[in-house]
Write a structure and sequence with these properties.
six-stranded mixed sheet, about 25% helix
Length: about 150
Amino acid sequence: MTAAFTCSKTFSGFPCCHRQWRHGGHCRFVHGYSRSFTLWFQAKALDAHGFVVDFSSLGSLRQQLADQFDHTFLVNADDPLLEQWQALHTQGALDLRVMDNVGMESSAQLVWQWANALLLQRDGGRSCCWKVEARENETNAASYEALPDWYGG
């Protein structure tokens, strides 16, 4: 394994709701959690300030998380009730976000993609996000872990 510096940052306080309409059990019903996300970063070399990632520079990522997950209703793009959810959104009853998959595993992958897009643009490949844990509560979490293709760390 190549030597690397690592750090992690947790973003929390994103109350939202969703449903897994294909699920045969109670997960098919609308239910909510206060989601949190922990991101792990790595770099072979530190930046000019001695950081893997300067946490104060992640404001745009935090805003993306808030826009997607703060007081929103997440629904799969193939949900058979999508028209009804869209009508409720139009009426101001909910703040709809349509996703390929609202599950925690896919949410972790989405946040991983956002983080790496930011880091590639900003740092030119010096650092990357190699893991994201998406947590729906104290006992349930899912993660996505991969090095982006462009990262040569």
